[in-house]
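pasting for the record
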Amino acid sequence: MSEISALRKYDKPKIGLYSTGLNAYWDQFPGLKERLISYGEFIANRMSEWGEIFHFGLIDSEEKGREAGTYFNKHNVDVIFIHAATYATSSVVLPVHQRSHATIIILNLQPADQLNYDETNTGEWLAHCGACPIPEFSNVFNRAGLEYKVISGLLGLDRSPEISMTNEVTNHHQQAIRAWKEIKEWIQAAHVKDVLSNAKFGFLGNTYNGMLDLYSDFTMIQAQTGIQVDILEMCDLNERMLTITDKEMQYKEKQVLDMFSISEDSPSEKLARKPTEEDLNWSYHVAAAQEKLVKDRGLDGLTYYYHGTPDSEYEKLQSGFILGNSLLTAQSVPAAGEGDLKTNVAMKICDILGVGGSFCEIVTTDYVNDTILLGHDGPFHLEISNGKPILRGLGLYHGKQGSGVSVEAKVKTGPITTLGLTQTVEGRLKLIISEGEATDGETMKIGNTQTQVKFGMAPDTYYEKWFEEAPIHHCAMSIGKNADLFKKVGLILGIPTVKI
């Protein structure tokens, strides 16, 4: 499948970092301060691959703590990593976080896997005692009402400092690999917060009548995720339809033919036929207008559905939505049908993290294979497709008015994670996560996206656990085992999460 470029690109997240120390040590143990500073610089350099790093340096006094808090506020960092380099009193770290309220992650990264016990002096020990102050930090943060997380492991240096009395090359140790995986995931989660807090989602049309679970309070969504909702009308899209040139149509046609296979008639569904040239051209036209609308309004996501008078101009327009919205989803502007803004946000989270995010619901259960089929009539994230998706012509959209071109596809085989965003009785958002395995099991040929998923437990057990969390009936499907990553996103956003 050919590459498709993203319509929306984002800056790296802003990451705060500082190291801790006790100023009384520096005159007593020459070289210790410089050694700890070098460890902090190593951490900053590694983190810079994933974020824009605001490295304050070493904090060893209450005055520097207050200065650091102001510094991190000035740069509006999304998360602050505390490198517990050696013992420090809690009085030097608390002022930082009383001024800057970004998420707190404490790094307990020991330089070596073992001390050289015979030769180690006090100065050498102090370079390896990062864990010493963390109980104190934890107690004070808890009493101050500040949430925090801790990552423990090895620092992961690829060479030992000259001052060291032991081997500090630990970059291949599992304790270093695991710790740096955790650090990367926290930075990725911070990226989600940064993008959402500056994002604009279009809401085109209305919510499918009667789907009460999908109805969303736009103010509540913005208050809890940061996204702005731009309410759009069908005339906004129709206005762009009138401006599409032959050149734009040809570009969209080439893009579609590179990305999709065109189906023949379905062997099982009489309504699913080879798409007519007229229907394909209409979908190209609508897709070009959808892309233009997204660019004109600066949208990062698009929630859509329209139900109007049968055979009206706007009904004809909405019949061409599925293809274009699948293209938008692959271009980092996820589109969610039936007016489901909450799942659109879940899809965007997946897309920001680079793990896909296809629009899904329960299709059916395969009790022979112990799998659940998940999918929908669109849109589909083309970048996680198992081969080229297929375009089918549908003589009738099930449960909806109109007809046109639909996308038939399945997700790549291997680990997948579903992400649902629901709303509780208290009016709070909640993330629901489940990990499974996408199989290459059979699917129907009816113009819908479908993937057979095995969840590691009997389907009925999975259903009961899932339904008891009061989900909405849609979710986003991502590739990979992403539960830990999604949990971090929930914590940084302040949204409760539960894993099935």
